[in-house]
Design a protein that fits this description.
Elements lengths: L3 H12 L3 H8 L3 H9 L6 H11 L3 H6 L9 H8 L1 H4 L8 H16 L5 H33 L16
């Protein structure tokens, strides 16, 4: 299994670009790029996204080492699903981003690639017709699992209870 820095080195080498050219295309300095390649520092999520966009790299390969290295159809999916926003995963992850992730995963699993218009309509449908029910199902599953395996729960829920 390759390390992330080795994967970055592989992509740089296979791009046929100089370090300076690759750095310019990915929006980092040459020194920063060398540090990423050599494993001195870890790359940001934005850098990984930029590599995937600019060089048609399969994000599942670079992150999980699954699938092929290069996947041309991902370039359009990144734009349509705004993966760059999703990959910044922070505590403010919104329902919109969750829907994007679910739709992206469904398209990968089924092999169905929607147009940008189809993606927007599907996201709207999911949000308006299914999202509330989906959240309820996840809450029910969570509750059942914690009852079956109470050691899974890290903290007491008292601070989460609604007050009237």
């Amino acid at each position: 299994m390759l390390t992330l820095s080795e994967k970055i080195g592989k992509i740089i080498q296979e791009s046929g670009l100089s370090l300076a050219q690759f750095a310019q295309k990915t929006g980092v300095s040459k020194n920063t790029l060398v540090n990423y390649r050599d494993g001195v520092t870890s790359p940001s999520g934005q850098f990984i996204i930029k590599i995937c966009k600019e060089f048609s790299v399969n994000p599942r390969w670079i992150i999980l080492e699954e699938g092929e290295v290069y996947r041309a159809e991902y370039e359009d999916l990144f734009q349509a699903l705004q993966i760059d926003k999703i990959m910044d995963i922070d505590p403010g992850l919104t329902e919109f981003h969750c829907i994007n992730i679910l739709l992206f995963e469904a398209m990968k699993k089924t092999g169905i690639i929607l147009t940008s218009d189809g993606i927007e309509k599907m996201k709207k449908f999911i949000y308006e017709e299914a999202w509330s029910e989906f959240k309820g199902i996840v809450a029910d599953v969570l509750t059942s699992l914690v009852r079956a395996a109470p050691n899974w729960e890290a903290k007491k829920r008292d601070h989460l209870k609604k007050t009237d």
